[in-house]
Design goal:
Layout lengths: L1 E5 L3 H12 L3 E5 L2 H10 L1 E5 L4 E3 L3 E2 L8 E6 L6 H5 L6 E9 L6 H9 L4 E14 L2 E15 L12 H12 L4 E4 L3 H22 L3 H6 L1 H20 L8 H11 L8 H7 L10 H11 L4 H10 L9
Parallel strand pairs: 1-2, 1-6, 2-5, 3-9, 6-7, 7-8, 9-10
Antiparallel strand pairs: 3-4, 8-9
Helix pairs in contact: 6-8, 6-10, 6-12, 8-11, 11-12
GO molecular function: 2-dehydropantoate 2-reductase activity
Function: Catalyzes the NADPH-dependent reduction of ketopantoate into pantoic acid.
Keywords: Coenzyme A biosynthesis, NADP, Oxidoreductase
C-alpha cells in the first residue's frame, strides 16, 4: 500500500515505520528539527516490541508525495483544520483519510474538507513519543489501532470497503501492532475520550503520576466522575455503546502496571507547549452546554488548565 503519515510524531512515525517494515510505501510528513533529522539520518524507533531503524522519505510538502491509498492523520487536534486544507494533493478517487487523533471532532473537520465517504475515524492505544529529533520511543501500551468508516451519528454505518480490508491486512501482518475494525466508530471515539479526559485531566491538574491518583480516594473518585460525565454527553449526542465505558476503563486501569505514567497533556503543560485542552475537556463542556447537561468535573479541569493551555514562548 501507499501510505502518507501526516504528523510523523510518536504515534504516526511508529505505525508508519511498522507498516514500512512490511514493505509498504510509507512517506512521513513532519516539520522542524524532527524533519531535518528524518531526512538526514532516517527514522529510529526504540520500542519495547523491538528496536528498528528505517530510511524513509520525509517531507513537509504533501504535493511532493502525490496520491496515496491511505493518509494517517496524527497531528495535534489544533492542527487538523490546517492539515485538512492540504489533503487534496494526497488523495485519489478511492483514497481514505484515517484520523488517529485525540478528541471526537477531528473527523468532522476532515469530512468537511474531503467528504465524509473518504474519512475513517480511529483511535490508537500506545505510549509513544519523540525522544529526540528523528528518534521515537515506544514505551508500552498494546500498540493497537481501532478504526471504522465515519458517518453521521444517526445514520447506519456504511459497509466496510475493500480499501479498509486491505489496510486491515497490512496492519495485521505488521510486527509490533494490532488492529480492529469497528462499525460503532462514534462509540469508539467517545469511549477513548472518556479515558483520555480522566487520565489527562487528573495527571495535568494534580501534576502527579497515575499511581498517586489511583491510590488517593478523592482523586480516584474524580477520575471516575470525569469519565461518567463524558459518557453522559455522548449519550446526549446520540452515541450508543454495546459496553459500559466507565466500568471497562476503571477495571483496566486498576489492573494496569503504569503507576509512573502521566499523559501527553501533562507533558505539554510542563514543557510550555500548546495543550489539546480544547479538543478534550473543552469539547465535553461545549457539547454538554448544547444539551443542557451539567459536567462539573470537566468544567473544573478545563477552568484550572485553560489559563495555561497556550504555548509558553517565554
Amino acid at each position: 500500500m501507499e501510505i502518507a503519515v501526516y504528523g510523523a510524531g510518536g504515534v504516526g512515525a511508529y505505525y508508519g515505520g511498522r507498516l514500512a517494515q512490511q514493505g509498504h510505501d510509507v512517506t512521513l510528513i513532519a516539520r522542524g528539527d524532527h524533519l531535518d533529522a528524518l531526512q538526514r539520518d532516517g527514522l529510529v524507533v526504540e520500542s519495547v516490541a523491538g528496536d528498528f531503524a528505517l530510511d524513509l522519505p520525509a517531507t513537509d510538502d504533501p504535493e511532493e508525495i502525490g496520491e496515496v491509498d491511505v493518509v494517517l492523520v496524527c497531528v495535534k487536534s489544533f492542527d487538523t483544520e490546517a492539515v485538512a486544507a492540504h489533503l487534496d494533493a494526497l488523495l485519489g478517487e478511492d483514497s481514505a483519510v484515517l484520523s488517529l487523533q485525540n478528541g471526537v471532532e477531528n473527523e468532522e473537520t476532515l469530512a468537511d474538507a474531503v467528504g465524509t465517504n473518504r474519512v475513517w475515524g480511529g483511535v490508537a492505544y500506545i505510549f509513544s513519543t519523540i525522544k529526540e529529533p528523528g528518534v521515537v520511543e515506544h514505551t508500552g501500551g498494546p500498540a493497537k489501532i481501532v478504526f471504522g468508516r465515519y458517518h453521521d451519528v444517526a445514520a447506519e454505518p456504511p459497509a466496510r470497503s475493500s480499501l479498509a480490508d486491505a489496510f486491515l491486512d497490512a496492519c495485521e501482518s505488521a510486527t509490533g501492532m494490532t488492529v480492529d475494525y469497528t462499525e460503532n466508530v462514534h462509540g469508539t471515539l467517545w469511549d477513548k475520550l472518556a479515558l483520555i479526559c480522566a487520565q489527562a485531566g487528573l495527571t495535568a491538574t494534580t501534576r502527579r503520576p497515575f499511581g498517586d491518583i489511583r491510590e488517593n480516594e478523592a482523586s480516584w473518585r474524580l477520575y471516575r466522575r470525569v469519565m461518567e460525565e463524558v459518557v453522559s454527553v455522548a449519550h446526549a449526542e446520540g452515541v450508543r455503546f454495546e459496553w459500559d465505558p466507565v466500568s471497562k476503563w476503571l477495571d483496566a486501569m486498576e489492573a494496569m502496571d503504569n503507576e509512573g505514567n502521566y499523559s501527553s497533556l501533562h507533558y505539554d503543560l510542563t514543557h510550555g507547549k500548546r495543550m489539546e485542552l480544547d479538543a478534550l475537556h473543552g469539547s465535553v463542556v461545549r457539547h454538554a452546554r448544547e444539551h443542557g447537561i451539567d459536567v462539573p468535573a470537566n468544567d473544573a479541569v478545563y477552568a484550572i488548565l485553560a489559563p495555561q493551555a497556550a504555548p509558553n514562548d517565554g
